[in-house]
Amino acid sequence: MKIIDGGVTSAKGFKAAGCAAGVKYENRPDMAMIFSEKPCRAAGTFTSNVFKAAPVLWDRRIIREGDGSVRAVVVNTGIANAGTGKEGMRLCEETAKKAAGVLGISPDEVIIGSTGVIGPQLNMEAIFRGIETLSGQLSDTREAAKEASIAIMTTDTHPKECAVEFEAGGKKITLGGMAKGSGMIHPNMCTMLSYLTTDLCISKELLQEALSDVITDTFNMISVDGDTSTNDTLVLMANGEAGNEEITDHGTDYEAFREALHHVALDLARQLAGDGEGATKLLTCHVINAEDVNKARILAKSVITSSLTKAAMYGNDANFGRILCAMGYSGAEFDPEKLDIHFDAEGFSRITVYSDGDRVLFSEEEATELLKQKEVIITADMKEGDAQATAWGCDLTHEYVNINADYRS
Amino acid sequence: MKIIDGGVTSAKGFKAAGCAAGVKYENRPDMAMIFSEKPCRAAGTFTSNVFKAAPVLWDRRIIREGDGSVRAVVVNTGIANAGTGKEGMRLCEETAKKAAGVLGISPDEVIIGSTGVIGPQLNMEAIFRGIETLSGQLSDTREAAKEASIAIMTTDTHPKECAVEFEAGGKKITLGGMAKGSGMIHPNMCTMLSYLTTDLCISKELLQEALSDVITDTFNMISVDGDTSTNDTLVLMANGEAGNEEITDHGTDYEAFREALHHVALDLARQLAGDGEGATKLLTCHVINAEDVNKARILAKSVITSSLTKAAMYGNDANFGRILCAMGYSGAEFDPEKLDIHFDAEGFSRITVYSDGDRVLFSEEEATELLKQKEVIITADMKEGDAQATAWGCDLTHEYVNINADYRS
Fold first, then answer.
1. Residue of A nearest to B81 (CA)
2. How far apart are CA B265 and CA B262, in angstroms?
3. Which of B191, B202, B292, B361 is the most exposed place for a label (fewest CB within 10 A)?
4. Tell me: the pLDDT tens digits for B64-123?
5. DSSP letter at B122?
6. Which of B233, B250, B274 is the last residue of a domain?
7. Are residues A314 and A171 part of one domain?
8. The model's pTM
9. List B9, B191, B233, B305, catalytic entry
10. Which domain holds residue B372?
């Protein structure tokens, strides 16, 4: 597997575009489109929130019940089309029909994504104008992928892309994707909005299996604010343009694909966590030597979700008591007397702050310097088994409060 | 039942004191004592956190295994004596021994409470000095109760007390208490530190039963930051000085006591929520007409725990989408198409923002004015049954981040 500079247009046969359609704000990129001439098999995972946004219901139906022919994705920011009742569902359908008409495909081949404020109805004049503009700008260049990734941003501070190449059936396969955060991020089955494209030829069942498999340790292990969105959507499209023989079993080719997919999903998930609303740093929590992997996941996620731990990390304060506390209330049982806690950062020696259930004297000054880095790694050694898990989050900052106290105005 | 101005010294035979012992800071009240000449029966509930602070382990042993003779409470702020290993347990025991020596009672009659930074060991010189000062200042006056309630504050902005009178067995009974917040508040079995005193005579079993019963809808329904502390302790002491015949069954007298206890617990819990770290307002969420009470509790607590909802309330932003979202990911199943959401505040007409699963047009200006009040009430009408529950929280503010990014320095 080789990491390349790319995004949703890296795989053969995929075009993309981004534009400023004026859905909620003027002169700000707010609509994106992905298009594949050849029909794609698609896999997806969606929010577990009881309130599912209209586009989530639309996409889920297409991916679960459709015949595996997806050719376009239309995404808007500004308005989430969630909590919008039957009228919201109708506007989602109209969006798909408009895109289908312009692109010469069926509405059931159009995946819809919306993100933004919950409650208001879509501004259809802007949406229609955007679809027309986007369809005229579709391109398979690197720039087009970048523009699409910029157009799906909301409070994100930078676009999030990733692409890799690998081999399957003697052919070069490419897999690329984009994602956006950065608030209401606590994915439970997938993240806010993420679209992955590949030219691999693979059965629909294995495509979904690989996706469901990799999200457990990637998108589902990040959190910005503990709030699982109504719009979480992760869609993976495979158009088969690479020309490999269709993958239909769990052989070497499937494993190569799974590895590539895991890399892209993990890379995008880490980008989402590190660019959480208001974040100044990425927090990584490794839980090692746990009794079982489920326990390790619960513990790691509890640490990176704790408001008090996140605020301490913002203040570069090695307040390990909050880490203990978050592990202790996570719901996972463990022996607190065995626990070790370490802090790490690139270019710094490890600082151990807690060992065998007791504090360790350490230099507060050195710890403060370590905690100022862009990625801080907390390792909790449970010494109870050999399972491990990692979760990613960010610090809780004044800017998070600024952004969210005044989101709609 | 009659509400009176009072605290831990209101019930007959209870004395209290508060002083500045210099445990962590100089010239700041940081130690409190409660004393009853007559032995008390005691009931308690403690944190469910796997990491239990040394004083929690100490108190739990006394209350669960003891013969029901408790006579004193010693509390310090500044250092939590949590995550302190065997040495922390030894220092807790030394504290009890010192207090017992000074007061002429047994160490097993001394309840210990600590709150503050997790990790450091207690400063025993200050603790011993404090115990000596406190024992010389014990008094049954209203002022003494107030001083004790001030001495247990950490980031609280005001002391929290409550007291009531009621009748049992033809005698006037008094019940009073104090509590402290205001960070790491997401009680699971009880709150940070709260001490209640009564002169009622009641069997130990019924005392514990009444306490366990009332916390479900009071202390266990508040949250400031979702972080369940290592030190949560609620202790209720009954010395029997009122002279009523011992309550040994669930008759009228037990019900009168239960009602009084519920009032005091609810009042203190609401005070804790409204004075959460950095809070500018109290958030109350009523979930009504739910299918069952457990579901109602989960939904109400999810709303007042959501960071995004809390930040919107700080910004006086009627962003009901975040309330929908928090209900949707709570884990409770319900029909989103039936839901109504209303905002209320004292002196304002009700504003309905969501009805039958769809948004309602409302005046943003009026909503902003309503949300500026000191208590904002969110009512979610599920229209699925007749169960209800209420949870209390506070807004998420810049000051919360200030306090917690820099807690230890």
1. A321
2. 5
3. B361
4. 887 768 999 999 999 999 989 899 999 999 999 999 999 999 999 999 999 988 889 999
5. P
6. B274
7. no
8. 0.83
9. B191
10. 282-405
